[in-house]
Design goal:
496 residues, alpha+beta, Nucleotidyltransferase, domain 5, 2 domains, 7-stranded mixed beta sheet, 5-stranded mixed beta sheet, globular, binds adenosine-5'-diphosphate, binds SN-glycerol-3-phosphate
Length: 496
Amino acid sequence: MNYILALDQGTTSSRAIVFSREGVIAARAQRDLALSYPHSGWVEADPMALWQGVLAAARSAVADIGAAHIDAIGIANQRETTVLWDRRSGLPLHNAIVWQDRRTHDACEALRAAGHADFISQAAGLVIDPYFSATKLAWLLDNVPGARERAGRGELCFGTVDSWLVYQLTGGRVNVTDPSNASRTMLYNIHRGCWDQDLLDLFDIPRAVLPEVVPSSGVRGHTDARWFGAELPIGGVAGDQQAATYGQDCVRPGMAKNTYGTGCFIMVNTGAKPAACERLLTTVGWSVDGRTDYLLEGSVFMGGAIVHWLRDLGVIGHSSEIEALATSVADSGGVILVPAFTGLGAPYWDAGARATLTGMSRSSGKAHIARAGLDAIALQCADVLQTMRQAPGVTLTELRVDGGACANDYLMQLQADLLGLPVLRPRVTETTALGAARLAALATAGGDGAGGGIAWRLDRAFVPSWSDDRREAAIARWRRAVAHARQWRAEDDHAR
Ligand SMILES: Nc1ncnc2c1ncn2[C@@H]1O[C@H](COP(=O)(O)OP(=O)(O)O)[C@@H](O)[C@H]1O
Ligand SMILES: O=P(O)(O)OC[C@H](O)CO
């Protein structure tokens, strides 16, 4: 039996997971990645430490199986994070600027004030925000001495983390990205499927610094023999949220997934044409077999992070304890948490909102607050999915779930009840890695059929049980609380 190695490079850790062709996990290893915060709002990672962590995790997982049994490698990566390196030496010129980094806030405000929002949204499918790579790369070219001139002469490479890893894995021979990652740079035209000269001009980015864009599935090169003792083909690459969507087999229009990690990332497949929806991002899912699939994306900043916050407050000792505490009471007793600790993401996009805990009475206790915390995760996701349902041509029939907090049965049942849709939890919840493995399996011999023959399998379906009236009442109460949280910041500023 042969295997696929999936590399899931995330913001704070790198995982290597070996899947059998049946989609069963055969080996795994993980390495943590340290971030640095040189100034308020800045978030950086050392590209060499990132690569060494991936290599160490990969070697450990491969050693358990034997390199001779690995057919191919798939990569799923944290997106938008920007690396700039010397084409010849392979050495980075600066730390990677991580997707969470806000240093280009003022540059983004200037772009918005100059009236570029519509053009960017139409070409790239994105809203102007420091989140995406373009302003991060421009910052590097402006602030690393000599970088702009060297980039213009073709001496430097820009890449998102996928490109950086492929470059290192192939011993510097291959410099490519895939459309799912390219579509998060704000330099890629999602309609034409290529780098966009007008966007490059707007951000003043020399074309010579960009990687070639190749399909998400397909062999793009082989690993240098010194890493695993064999030259293994790299058969698939996608940004992690797109890979998770592919891992959930959401390959037809209307199929949606939600990853309940630190934040929640919700994606719905809109088919072979990009769909536009105000307050959501339009992004490339993957390009496979000559077809490009598009997704709508909405993200919620505080998902499982609410559970960590409650743990840090001492309400629970460990994340896994929250379900028992929350279900020890019949309901939240009227308590509502709006977790706008860092503002609100989709569909509100309100950076100024601040968290509120409302509706408390003298009898409100830890259990009510824990329950309000879980409710807030499901309610925020319901808001995003409600917005998705309003997009032209989107009809949702179910939601597939993954990520650490999808282990919580109470949360999954509540999500089904709030949506009025079945929530499906698969057997393998490492769907990001699974998606990368499926893309790689497709590209290699024996990888026939959907997902290269690696199937998606159901663990449990949560069936909605609420009446329309109950659902609407719960959402109406939540929206009142959200309005309160959004108003609070304004009043607070006024008082100062
Ligand atoms: N049983 C649970 N109920 C609710 N949240 C949970 C549970 N177990 C883990 N979590 C939350 O899930 C998150 C971890 O999920 P993970 O997918 O590993 O996140 P990430 O990849 O963003 O680090 C944490 O924020 C944690 O609090
Ligand atoms: O590090 P992760 O896995 O939470 O993913 C980060 C996202 O890709 C950012 O867009």
